[in-house]
């Protein structure tokens, strides 16, 4: 199921170009167009879910698959050994701008917490 106005649904359908890093059966990983770290890749689901909570409730195992795919991306990008973040923003107040579940794989520089 897809949403006609969703940017990520359009990317999955091949209607909007994106730099694809990896493709899985139920996920696709693309480079973020506004990277916040040297490695910034989005792992998105092929099927539309508005956020991580929705996918977790509706499809047992898909969040697990996204986490495994994120690790594969981090390994391929050379940041798995030094560490990376996997971030899910849920809701506009948390910074989610595209309401289609996606995990941000961030790595390639030190990311101390709290940010300086």
Note the main attributes of this structure.
single chain; 116 residues; alpha+beta; five-stranded antiparallel sheet; 3 helices; globular; HIT-like_sf; Histidine triad (HIT) family protein; catalytic activity
Short characterization:
This protein is α+β, with helices and mostly antiparallel strands. It has helices at residues 7-12, 52-58, 62-77, and strands at residues 20-23, 27-31, 39-45, 84-87, 102-107.
Describe this structure in words.
The protein is an alpha+beta fold. The chain has a domain at 1-36 and 103-109. It is built from three helices and five strands, in the order αβββααββ. The radius of gyration is 14 Å and the shape is globular. InterPro entries: Histidine_triad_HIT (IPR001310), HIT-like (IPR011146), HIT-like_sf (IPR036265). A motif (Histidine triad motif) lies at residues 100-104. GO terms for molecular function: catalytic activity.
| Poorly predicted parts | none
Distance between the termini: 41 Å
Strand order of the largest sheet: 1-2-3-5-4
Strand count, sense and barrel status of the largest sheet are:
5 strands, antiparallel
Bulk shape = globular
* Share of helix, binned: 25-40%
Number of strands: 5
> Structural class, from helix and strand content?
alpha+beta
Order of helices and strands: HEEEHHEE
Mean pLDDT: 92
